[in-house]
Known about the structure:
The protein has 189 residues and is an alpha+beta fold.
Amino acid sequence: MSETENACFFYGTLMSFKVLSRVIYRTTDPDPWLFQDLQIKEAILHGYCRHQVRFADYPGIIAEAGKSVKGMYVTGLRDMEIRRLDTFEGDEYTREVVTARLLNPDGTEGEDVQCSAYVYRDESNLIKEEWDFDAFVAEKLHRWVGASKEYDEVDQIDPTGGRQWMTVASIGARKVVEVAVQDELKAAV
């Protein structure tokens, strides 16, 4: 897969753009150029059920015949962003290739798409009730978008403090400035 062909199906806290941004960009309010390659569409994953994880704010999905999970299909994720997501999800989840179905604007089902989804490993740690995204947003999202210990491990992936994005964007500009300064120094001699 190329650097921007990674696709994931998100069904829990990562359906919130603020949480997704905090994980992959280290900020809840990223500059638009950071996410210009992301495409986000509503989707459904058949054959799985979303359950509340015991003593946690987030859900896990497990295979369950006759059930379906609505979520978000996100394409354009870079390899570094996938590494951050893997770290964020930790060893509670396994990233697996699944087939989701896109939802049309009118709510009908559209085309099938292959993508990754984070499937919960320990079914015994799930409460057999549906996790509610709207309740999460209303009652708990604020705890997930600030300076939280939840992100410490993810933040360790990039010791530059998020500056690797700026480095990529500014290399060309820096070279132009370096050449101009060198030319100025030569002219002064």
